[in-house]
Amino acid sequence: SSAAVELASLKLPGFGFSYARVLVIGAGKMANLLVKHLISKGCSRMTIVNRSEQRVIDLQAEFTEAKLLFRPLDQMMRCIGEADLVFTSTASEAPLFYKETVEHLPPTGEHFDGIRYFIDISVPRNVASCVGDVTSARVYNVDDLKEVVAANKEERRRKVLEAQVIIKEELQKFEAWRDSLETVPTIKKLRAYAERIRQEEMEKCLSKMGDNVSTKNKKLVEEMSRAIVNKLLHGPMTYLRCDDTSGRTINETLANMQALEQMFNLKSDISVLEKQLREWAENIQP
């Protein structure tokens, strides 16, 4: 049933179901699925021809978002004459429609160029093959649906392959990000190392300038020291990044990290606070 609706959407003119007058013949399980898939494609109004009205009432109760009209079997030919798209899904052992019963039907709506579409999902067929000889009719049956199913499988397979490529790319990005976390402690150590030197040298500078230094000048000295440190750190920090913009592999980034740790002796570096805590802990030991 989903393949039948998909086939209809492919064969109908560009207006799709927006202007199509849809007729469903039969109200069994397959018709139930047809109605469901038609609604999902934007069809909000359809006529259902069936022997029993109760089945159509059940469909109306289940699919309240669409307008489903019941018509009895004795009105079937009139309903077909008013339809642009006909789905057949009955248990009839013999065809319901032949060439002679279709060729004199009224023309379809202006959006369909006089062509009436029959999509027969019944086994055995409800629409005889000779109906296809009528110039104003297009007939599709279960064999045509198999082609749609095969095409859908191929499309799904293609999308699965595309999804796998996306997943692989995102996984590589995630692994690079995870691995790049190894550089975070080094970045923090390097910044702490530079900040400690900045503060020490700034204090020396201010002490040499005497007590008459204005607050404004002190602020200017501090801003200048921060700017110098930031510019000096920009290069090393850049080489510790591993993302889409850096163009470096994680191995190259880790090699840079190790080089910086050795260059600035960061592995053995202990922050001032940590050093003070260690000294304090040693002094209180018995």
Short descriptors:
alpha/beta
Verbal overview:
- With 286 residues, the protein is α/β, with parallel strands linked by helices.
- Helix content is 55%, strand content 9%.
- It contains 10 helices and 6 strands.
- The protein has a 6-stranded parallel β-sheet with strand order 3-2-1-4-5-6.
- The N and C termini lie far apart (86 Å).
Describe the structure concisely.
By secondary structure, the chain is an alpha/beta fold. It is built from ten helices and six strands, in the order αβαβαβαβαββααααα. α1 packs across α6 and α7 packs antiparallel against α8.
Write the layout of secondary structure elements.
Blueprint: H1 2-11, E1 22-25, H2 29-40, E2 45-49, H3 53-62, E3 67-71, H4 76-81, E4 85-88, H5 99-102, E5 116-120, E6 137-140, H6 142-180, H7 184-209, H8 215-239, H9 250-263, H10 272-283
Parallel strand pairs: 1-2, 1-4, 2-3, 4-5, 5-6
Helix content: 55-70%
Spatially, the strands of the biggest sheet line up as 3-2-1-4-5-6
Euclidean distance between termini CA atoms: 86 Å
Report Rg: 39 Å
Major sheet, described briefly?
6 strands, parallel
Report the uncertain regions. Answer: 268-274
